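Still learning. Show one?

>
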Amino acid sequence: MKKLLAMIQHLLREGLSPERIALAVALGLTIGVFPIYSPMSLMVIFLAWLLKLNKPLSLAAYYSMTLVMPLLIIPFLRLGEWAARAETASIHLVELSRRFSETPMETLQEFGWSFAHAIFGWALIAPILTGLLYALILRLGRRWQERSRDLIEPAPEDDGSLPAEGI
């Protein structure tokens, strides 16, 4: 039991510098909007392990995008089609989801290029999105860190004693 607790503590404490936190969250958020339902959580864990990032934080960011991801499928698809100079596919997500749950292999064959274009669109945006998210999260994290430090540490001229005229 002690080994298990030690392992959990290590997982929670790993990669807690502002830079690593920002990268863990940025990667989790970016992979979280991957336009195809798939076990991308394995990719998140692998990248977090490879880069020595906080795995629970990366996974939390990844799973936080569950409701956002479907909203971005069509924009990624259109970007991929535009970049590949492909014809615009007529796709309705509700119908596609229904058909995929009923006949996955037939749906995959019929819409395979659309899936490929959506992944291509995501791949074009992913490095830019990760970089922007990293910079934003790092800036916010450092600002939060400075403010919390100011709340905890007294000002240099303040020795913590009450002013003489106030007594």
The two ends are 56 Å apart (CA to CA). The chain has one domain: 14-152.
